C-alpha cells in the first residue's frame, strides 16, 4: 500500500465516515492533523496531493468546495472543505458491507420454500436431548 493509499484510507475512515454517520453535509480536513496522526513528518505535499485526487473524491462521493492556507497549497496549515455530492443519500454500497450482504441467501431460502418455511421445518425436526436427572 502506497503512502497516498494510506492517506486516502485514513481520510475516509476518520473524516468521511464520521461525517456520514453524523449526517453532516460539509466537513473539513486539516493536512497537519493527518501528517501528525500518520507520522508523515515532512510529507505535507503528499497528504495535500492525496486528499484532492479524483480517486478520493469519487470513491467518497465528495466535492472539494474550499481550500484554505498558503498560496503554495503544500503546507500542514492547508484545510480542505468537502461537501457530499448527494447529502441526502445513504452511504455508498462499497462502504456499507451490511448492505452488500442483504439478501445473500435469498435464492437458497427460495429453493426451500422461503425463510419462514425453512425455520418451521427446522423447528419441527428439532429433538431435545433426553437428559435424566439424578434421583
- Helix fraction by DSSP (H/I, runs of at least 4): 40-55%
Q: Provide the residue-averaged pLDDT.
A: 84
CATH topology of the largest domain: Ribosomal Protein S8, Chain: A, domain 1
Number of H/I helices: 7
Q: Which stretches are low in confidence, meaning pLDDT under 50 for 5 or more residues running?
A: none
Under the CATH scheme, the architecture of the largest domain is 2-Layer Sandwich
What is the gyration radius calculated from CA atoms? 24 Å
Shape: elongated
The largest pleated sheet is described as: 3 strands, antiparallel
Distance between the termini: 66 Å
Beta-strand content bin: 5-15%
Strand order of the largest sheet: 1-3-2
**What's the CATH first level of the largest domain?**
Alpha Beta
Secondary structural class: alpha+beta
Domains (count): 2
Which keywords apply here?
135 residues, alpha+beta, 7 helices, 45% helix, elongated
Provide a quick synopsis of the model:
This protein has about 140 residues and is α+β, with helices and mostly antiparallel strands.
